[in-house]
Write a structure and sequence with these properties.
The protein is mainly beta. The chain has a single domain, classed as lipopolysaccharide transport protein A fold (Sandwich). It is built from no helices and 11 strands. Strands 1, 2, 3, 4, 5, 6, 7, 8, 9, 10 and 11 form an 11-stranded antiparallel beta sheet that branches. Strand 5 and strand 6 form a beta hairpin. The protein is elongated.
Length: 134
């Protein structure tokens, strides 16, 4: 791991795993981008000037052999951007997703985690597999 307070980021290399609730992301390289939290104390309070600025995760970039698991859904790609505030993941680099016997792929895929839905842009391919036992 390499962290830079100046750049507000931390870079993890190797077999990286991120867990955020039900969301699990694996990749070769993961960069975590931080932003300053909004101050909770008034700026004119005496403790405000002595207080360190707290940071929170803003965005996470995953590169190389990206695998994503979210509940019963899973996806793979070469590149993913996770926006924490919006609970949104954008996949590029041959993204493929599977859910309940359906496989979908396209050049760009956006997963909206709160809404449990995905949008695929560009040349989309969908394969629906029926259960052999039914």
């Amino acid at each position: 791991m390499t962290a830079s307070s100046e750049k507000n980021q931390a870079v993890f290399k190797g077999s990286v795993k991120l867990v955020q609730g039900e969301l699990i992301v694996f990749s070769d390289i993961m960069t975590v981008f931080f932003k300053e939290k909004s101050p909770t104390a008034p700026s004119d309070s005496p403790s405000a000037s002595n207080r360190e600025t707290a940071k929170e995760i803003h965005m996470i970039e995953a590169r190389g052999h990206v695998k994503i698991f979210n509940g019963e859904s899973r996806a793979t790609s070469e590149h993913a951007l996770y926006f924490k505030q919006e609970e949104k993941v954008i996949l590029r680099g041959s993204p493929v997703a599977w859910q309940e016997g359906t496989k979908i792929s396209g050049p760009k895929m956006t997963m909206y985690l709160r809404e449990n839905r995905s949008v695929v842009e560009g040349g989309t391919q969908v394969i629906i597999q029926e259960n052999a036992g039914k």
